[in-house]
Design goal:
Layout lengths: L3 E5 L1 E3 L2 E3 L2 H9 L3 E5 L5 H9 L3 E4 L23 H16 L4 E4 L1 H9 L4 E2 L2 H4 L17 E5 L4 H6 L3 E4 L6 E2 L6 E7 L4 E6 L5 E4 L3 H5 L4 H14 L1
Parallel strand pairs: 1-4, 1-5, 5-6, 6-13
Antiparallel strand pairs: 2-3, 7-10, 8-9, 8-11, 11-12, 12-13
Helix pairs in contact: 2-3
Bound molecules: manganese (II) ion.
């Protein structure tokens, strides 16, 4: 009942910040949000992770391509090395403890990079696609469709083969790393969800269910509820 969910945040000069939709979606699903700032002391980090029941890796800036052995493309967006560092540390600790992890947008990309996979640094210049992944529409409105693999955790949660999702990303997973599998694709084959069979609950989605769950979208709410259930 009421699991504690560690949540990562964005940071710049003198501020930590997080879109409140993430926090509200977790509270709405019955989780207690605990925000994870940048910290250096490994004992403090371990203690914080020990006190959480699950991890939400939130959206944000681009992952530093040096972490997957690439030079920065001219189309790379802003990077935040301190955030990469704390997120990789807490991700490893949650993984060791096999605690549930939900990763959204940048979080989904970070999970793949943490396992040794890589990313498209910029979809528009690297993929010939007829799908706009950077929508100009209300935040919670699903603009493009995704196809969900049967026999996946995501299919068990959503219960449908095809849904529409919102889309605010210019990067995406390129080469997946074991133990991850793609559980949803857009019609241009951009990977829209990843998961691991080797872990109790490790799911990454490329869209922003938090922007839809706060508008009472059924599938987005199912996603958060299933995550919170797994944390209980
Ligand atoms: Mn998309």
């Amino acid at each position: 009942m009421y699991p504690i969910i560690g949540m990562t945040m964005d940071q710049d000069n003198k501020k930590f910040f997080l879109n409140q939709d993430y926090v509200q979606s977790i509270i709405q699903a019955g989780g207690i949000p605990l925000l994870i700032p940048y910290m250096e002391d490994p004992i403090m980090i371990k203690k914080l992770v020990d006190s959480c029941d699950g991890l939400l890796l939130t959206g944000g800036e681009d992952v530093d391509p040096i972490l997957y052995g690439e030079e920065p493309s001219p189309n790379l967006g802003e990077i935040v090395p301190a955030r990469d560092e704390i997120e990789r540390k807490v991700f490893d600790l949650f993984l060791q403890q096999n605690k549930p992890i939900l990763a959204i947008c940048r979080g989904c990309q970070l999970v793949n990079v943490a396992f040794g996979g890589n990313l498209y640094q910029d979809i528009p210049s690297q993929i010939a696609s007829e799908v706009n992944h950077c929508q100009r529409a209300p935040r919670g409105y699903g603009t493009h469709s995704i196809h969900i693999e049967r026999n996946s955790l995501l299919f068990k949660i959503i219960g449908k083969h095809k849904i529409r999702v919102n889309s605010y990303h210019h990067q995406s997973v390129k080469t997946l790393s074991a133990p991850l599998a793609a559980s949803a694709l857009a019609t241009d084959n951009v990977i829209e969800a990843i998961e691991s069979e080797a872990h109790a609950f490790l799911l990454g989605v490329q869209w922003h269910p938090e922007g839809m769950a706060v508008l009472q979208d059924k599938h987005a709410m199912q996603l958060f509820s299933s995550f919170i259930d797994a944390c209980n």
